[in-house]
Fold:
Amino acid sequence: MNCPIDRVWEFYIDVKHLGIITPKELELKIINSTSQKLTQGSEIWLEGKIMMMLSKRTKWHSTITLFSVSPHKCEYVDEMLTGPFKKWIHLHKFNDIDNDNSKKQTQVIDEIDFELPYGRLGKLFDGYAERTLQKLFYHRKVATIRVLENNL
Structure:
């Protein structure tokens, strides 16, 4: 995206970003957070239709297990402690892109390691969960670009 890494990073470590980039139909509500700005060890409690495939409201509790900042690369990991997945580890990476033009650009990468509950039965829904997550993260990408590139 056409935005400097420090601005993208500041946006993403502010807990309020979740309400801005999450699709409205998920009805996401931040119940509690140990801090407004994410840091190593921060915890957050959410509620909403967190997976688009579930019509009921679900609670989610996660913690920041990795938090790393350098001038050209920043990253953090949020790991679900309780919630709708058996396992959820989400790595957020932000890379400063060195290019020839004067515009500062940042690459945002989301890597998710997840496992659905219910063992082999849950495995039957892996493909559906992956497609649902792809739609969710596409929405997040578009919303992030809209907010940060248009200074909203």
Q: What stands out?
A: The chain has one domain: 5-149. The radius of gyration is 16 Å.
